[in-house]
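Thread amino acids onto this structure.
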């Protein structure tokens, strides 16, 4: 059901993007050919080369793998520069869940390994490890502020950066 829910969300996102004039394709890890293309890495790359937005749906298409892992996998496969991880109601990564712990402190920057070792709820350990191994940064930010994506794309330091230093 979760995989199907991500297909529905992808179609809603595609509709919103296309209403703004953005050419968009949805690729799914499960077969839903009436509404989405199958996920094929080369086809995704070609869409990106043509300036289209590609929305990946249905996770990896396999049980036991989260959408976090699917995001890390697809981002690695297409050689993405970063993952933007939108969260509701929080500015980024904290030392604890701020909804449950009033002493939770905001963390502006952390390495993948530190996030894994401290068991911070950035993403699941499989996804974090995949991002770490591929040196794929993750920007965790508050989606409630509609200006945040534009600010991130403009190079501003918004939310938390999870990254492993090169070298």
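Threaded sequence (167 positions):
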């Amino acid at each position: 059901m979760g995989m199907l829910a991500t297909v529905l969300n992808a179609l809603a996102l595609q509709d919103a993007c296309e209403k703004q004039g953005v050419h968009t394709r949805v690729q799914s890890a499960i077969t839903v050919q009436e509404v989405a293309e199958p996920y094929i890495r080369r086809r995704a790359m070609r869409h990106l080369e043509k300036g289209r937005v590609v929305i990946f749906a249905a996770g990896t298409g396999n049980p036991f793998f989260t959408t976090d892992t699917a995001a890390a996998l697809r981002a690695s496969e297409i050689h993405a520069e970063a993952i933007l991880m939108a969260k509701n109601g929080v500015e980024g990564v904290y030392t604890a869940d701020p909804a449950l712990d009033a002493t939770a402190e905001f963390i502006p920057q952390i390495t993948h390994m530190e996030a894994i070792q401290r068991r911070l709820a950035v993403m699941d350990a499989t996804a974090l490890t995949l991002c770490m191994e591929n040196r794929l940064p993750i920007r965790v930010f508050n989606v409630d502020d509609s200006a945040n994506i534009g600010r991130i794309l403009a190079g501003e330091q918004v939310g938390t950066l999870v990254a492993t230093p090169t070298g």
